[in-house]
């Protein structure tokens, strides 16, 4: 079947199987910043924002996405040349090691800071509770979210 | 290649007529369908555009649209009924991205053994509103028992009274992100120090859903000082199937201890 997805502000025509998962549609169409991890909704590597809310793309049928839905991947908020403040903070705080969890972590942080510009540490932990990192031990990731929150408020 | 067809109804009437076709399944958030065997399924009914994402209160009856996600319910219910047992049961369920996707309608129709919401909704004596072959309002307990109510029908809403009873919810997990091995829900209507009415449910037992009626009878009309942990534990008579990660007898023992703790927490006795 054919469908139109709005990804990072652009409408993209894609061919999909009726039972295809959004994670695979995104990766098969070049959005490889969306990582494939557990595929069980546990690790958050495939996290995207759907209408501003963090969701695991491995837990969504592509065909369930309707025309007015807006998908945001981590490249939609900033890239290597023009990074978002959150992405800069992750680099500066040493919150990136292998980098596999980073797209999901950054997007979960972005969703949090959009709705709550000045989160407490426990609110940060709750917002990131669906994102697993096997490298950093989370301390530097939480530092990065705090730093990004401060900088975004000054902006 | 799987030959399922997706349908995108714009009204409940359209959805109902599509449900007349056999083996069409309603799709809410999709999290319980994602790894399902679709060999007998001919179609999926996307409920996104039916306006079923709402929470409202009318004459002390709270109504939640079936497409409301756990996150929507937590936000909406906290403002109208912050101490509600459903808030307590949902706030530790799953993780943030899953809470943003799992719908209450899907959770009720799937009703897995690890459900965090079924115990709370049963304790609240919730009713489900369904449309399709079986139009009407039914007690959740009836809906769960009568398989035929689920056939060619979809849940449009869940309703319950806005109780201000004392309550507590416990989930047995190894780590926070786990699906619970069992959950305990206790809802107590108290007049000062006396329990007037008690509802205690354990979800995840061998019977899947266990209402501890003997224990409820023991608790009712008692002053809290008359209630002992031992008295509660003696009346928790539930069994569990073992699994790869745990033993059924251990879970039975754990359920006794945690039920007593849950009830004492609900009574606000430390």
Please, could you describe this protein's structure?
The complex is a heterodimer of chains A (155) and B (270). With 155 residues, chain A is an alpha+beta fold. Chain A folds into two domains: 2-76, Beta-grasp domain (Ubiquitin-like (UB roll)), CATH 3.10.20.30; 85-154, DNA polymerase, domain 1, CATH 1.10.150.120. Chain A is built from five helices and five strands. Chain A has helices at residues 22-28, 85-92, 102-115, 121-127, 139-154; strands at 2-7, 10-15, 47-50, 53-56, 70-72. Chain A has a five-stranded mixed β-sheet, with helices on one face. The longest helix of chain A is centred in the C-terminal third of the chain and has 16 residues, at 139-154. The mean pLDDT of chain A is 96. The radius of gyration of chain B is 19 Å and the shape is globular. Chain B has 270 residues and is of the alpha+beta class. The model of chain B has no long low-confidence stretch (mean pLDDT 93). In chain B, strands 4-5-8-6-7 form a five-stranded antiparallel β-sheet. Chain B has three domains: 5-46; 55-161, Uridine Diphospho-n-acetylenolpyruvylglucosamine Reductase, domain 3 (2-Layer Sandwich); 166-268, Enolase-like, domain 1, CATH 3.30.390. Chain B is 31% helix and 27% strand. The relative contact order of chain B is 0.11. The interface between A and B is medium-sized, with 27 and 28 residues.
């Amino acid at each position: 079947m054919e469908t139109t997805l709005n990804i990072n502000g652009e409408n993209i025509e894609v061919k999909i199987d009726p039972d295809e998962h959004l994670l695979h549609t995104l990766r098969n169409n070049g959005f490889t910043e969306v990582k494939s991890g557990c595929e069980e909704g546990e690790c958050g590597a495939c996290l995207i924002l759907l209408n501003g809310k963090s969701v695991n793309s491995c837990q969504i049928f592509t065909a369930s996405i309707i025309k007015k839905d807006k998908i945001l991947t981590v490249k939609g908020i900033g890239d290597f040349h023009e990074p978002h403040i959150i992405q800069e903070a992750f680099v500066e705080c040493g919150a990136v090691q292998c980098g596999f969890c980073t797209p999901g972590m950054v997007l979960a942080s972005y969703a949090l800071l959009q709705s709550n510009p000045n989160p407490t540490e426990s609110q940060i932990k709750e917002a990131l509770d669906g994102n697993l990192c096997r490298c950093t031990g989370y301390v530097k990731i939480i530092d990065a979210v705090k730093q990004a929150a401060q900088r975004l408020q000054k902006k | 290649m799987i030959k399922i067809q997706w349908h995108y109804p714009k009204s409940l009437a359209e959805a109902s007529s599509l449900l007349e076709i056999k083996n069409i399944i309603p799709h809410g958030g999709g999290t319980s369908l994602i790894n399902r065997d679709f060999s007998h399924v001919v179609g999926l009914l996307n409920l996104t555009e039916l306006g079923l994402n709402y929470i409202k209160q009318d004459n002390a009856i709270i109504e939640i649209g079936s497409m409301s996600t756990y996150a929507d319910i937590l936000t909406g219910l906290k403002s109208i009924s912050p101490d509600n047992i459903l808030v307590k049961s949902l706030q530790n369920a799953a993780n943030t991205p899953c809470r943003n996707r799992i719908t209450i309608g899907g959770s009720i129709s799937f009703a897995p053994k690890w459900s965090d919401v079924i115990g709370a909704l049963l304790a609240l004596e919730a009713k489900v509103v369904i449309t399709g072959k079986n139009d009407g309002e039914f007690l959740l307990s009836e809906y769960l028992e009568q398989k035929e109510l689920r056939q060619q029908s979809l849940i449009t809403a869940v309703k319950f009274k806005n109780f201000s009873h004392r309550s507590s919810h416990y989930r047995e997990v190894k780590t926070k992100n786990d699906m619970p091995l069992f959950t305990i829900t206790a809802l107590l209507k108290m007049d000062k120090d006396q329990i007037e009415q008690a509802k205690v449910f354990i979800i995840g037992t061998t019977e899947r859903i266990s209402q501890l009626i003997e224990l409820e009878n023991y608790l009712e009309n008692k002053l809290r000082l008359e209630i002992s942990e031992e008295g509660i534990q003696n009346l928790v008579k539930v069994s569990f199937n073992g699994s790869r990660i745990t033993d059924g007898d251990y879970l039975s023992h754990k359920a006794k201890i945690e039920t007593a703790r849950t009830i004492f927490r609900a009574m606000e006795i430390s």
